[in-house]
Amino acid sequence: MLVRKVPGFVPASPWGLRLPQKFVFLLFLSGLVTLCFGALFLLPNSSRLKRLFLAPRTQQPSLEAVAQVASHPRARGQESPPNPAPAAPAPGEDDPGSQASSRRRKGWLRRTHPTGHREEATATRGGGATALRPQEGSVPSSFDFKAFRSRLRHPVLGTRADGSKEPQSLVQTQREKIKEMMQFAWQSYKRYAMGKNELRPLTRDGYEGNMFGGLSGATVIDSLDTLYLMELKEEFQEAKAWVEESFHLNVSGEASLFEVNIRYIGGLLSAFYLTGEEVFRIKAIKLGEKLLPAFDTPTGIPKGVVNFKSGSNRSWGWAMAGSSSILAEFGSLHLEFLHLTQLSGNQVFAEKVRNIRKVLREIDKPFGLYPNFLSPVSGNWMQHHVSVGGLGDSFYEYLIKSWLMSAKTDMEAKDMYYEALEAIETHLVNVSPGGLTYIAEWRGGILDHKMGHLACFSGGMIALGAEDAKEEKRAHYRELAAQITKTCHESYARSDTKLGPEAFWFNSGREAVATQTSESYYILRPEVVESYMYLWRQTHDPIYREWGWEVVMALEKYCRTEAGFSGIQDVYSKVPNHDNKQQTFFLAETLKYLYLLFSEDDMLSLEDWVFNTEAHPLPVNHSDSSGRGGG
Ligand code: DMJ
């Protein structure tokens, strides 16, 4: 039907309303809608409704997602940031906010724009600023990095006195050489094995091994802080970008609790404390959470192996037929786990290691000694084998370092350390007929007159602890540290390559040498140069730099190959038989300790840092603010 337009005629609506009535009705309706919607936000108990309406925008991301977003705030748009976001101070900088430091940071800690892992990238999509907030009670949204840095007593990399224009000194040249070795080790790894756990330099490929539960990139994580320290800036950026883009935690294999803790957690924690980059903090915490099922035992003493998929745990088959946990393994978690609690606000990490301490404090100890095998079920020692080398070593190291890391407040750790050291001295320390001091191994009262390469870290440990011993013991411990370190040097000096064997003996008229070919190998281990570094810092006796340089020369001569560094199978042969492995600890520890040996004492000052057993620096918990702006 055609409705003709007739002047003055206003058609009625289908509901029979005329225009003014319709206007009033619409006004009323819109007022009602506004009121109802506003109530969702204003009424006190509206959170459930809010969630209903707003779920797609405020859904909490996983910690992985938080890491991704925090590290790549602009990844979605793929634009280059005009200026790098304020992050960590570059080495030597102390004011992260200053214009100059922001300019300097451009080349040093510039942001990268990776595509990211698919699952992780998906999780970040749609996340606005609120999506940066991690899950409640798990990870605090921030850590006051600036306040932490202001409490340090020294600039992280020292005052760098020899950054001056003065002619290159011998020590600078030596340090540069070590830096070149690190660069070569890293570049070889990057070229042939990037993302794999280790480089095999002879076959020029990568190796995953079976210790890390399917995690990759052990060499990357272990190298981060060494690259930072040596100011290998481009290489550090490569390593960081790999962590951001390719270091995935959604793996499902069986892992060694100890190895993942000292290498991965330790490496990530150090990288965070050195740079303030959130990606390292978040990944460390998330990985720490994956280790927790190892502690599900009747005593709370963790088992050595954790299954990332099922969350089950087990002891190593070789540890008293699968019945025991190993002292050095469950005794070397304290430093990292306290930092995980500090950075996450989650007490569970600290509770786990405090419980280990409690079990060890209360258990009877034969002659005050700590045997290496303990049942995580009954809490009893399973065998009376005591050693400061393999199976026992870093337990003692973590006692003295817990004391130091607590800014000398953890009295329990201090007491346990000095009591243990006294028992070791009484029952294990010996002097050979040739006058060499060594620490033997103890089997229920019978001594094996042998020292493992691993036990050679103890010279450094005893030196480090000497200053806080009872007054009348200090000089004695300094001397003991020096004598043990001298013995370990002898094990190097008495070989044809000037590198030390895996184990050396003191019997049958032979001293500080391996007695079987099966113990004659050298796998790029750090313990001897680690002790040189501590002894150098304590005494400044040039002998330690001389000895350190002998090691550098020997590494160059016998361990350097065309595609990286390799261990050798016989230190008594001048024709090297390479083992085709560039161990991750060579980059984390051996080269780092050598570099520190030829650096100023305030580079990673021992007043501010303790090194975990993989040489990853963790900060001392200075609670006061009497620091000198040690950015
Ligand atoms: C490293 O992984 C650690 O130092 C550990 O405590 C023992 N051994 C190796 C290096 O030799």
UniProtKB/TrEMBL annotation:
Cofactor dependence? Ca(2+)
**E.C. number(s) listed in UniProt:** 3.2.1.-
Organism of provenance: Rangifer tarandus platyrhynchus (Svalbard reindeer)
Superkingdom field = Eukaryota
Record lineage: Eukaryota, Metazoa, Chordata, Craniata, Vertebrata
The name this protein goes by in its record: alpha-1,2-Mannosidase
Key words, A-Z = Disulfide bond, Glycosidase, Hydrolase, Membrane, Transmembrane, Transmembrane helix
Regions that span the bilayer: 23-43
Stretches for region Disordered: 64-140
* UniProt keyword Hydrolase present: yes
Which Pfam families does the record cross-reference, listed alphabetically? Glyco_hydro_47
Q: Where is the composition biased (Basic residues)?
A: 102-115
Q: Which family does it belong to?
A: Belongs to the glycosyl hydrolase 47 family.
Instruction: Specify the pathway.
Output: Protein modification; protein glycosylation
List the InterPro entries hit by this protein, alphabetically: 6hp_glycosidase-like_sf, Glyco_hydro_47, Glycosyl_Hydrolase_47, Seven-hairpin_glycosidases
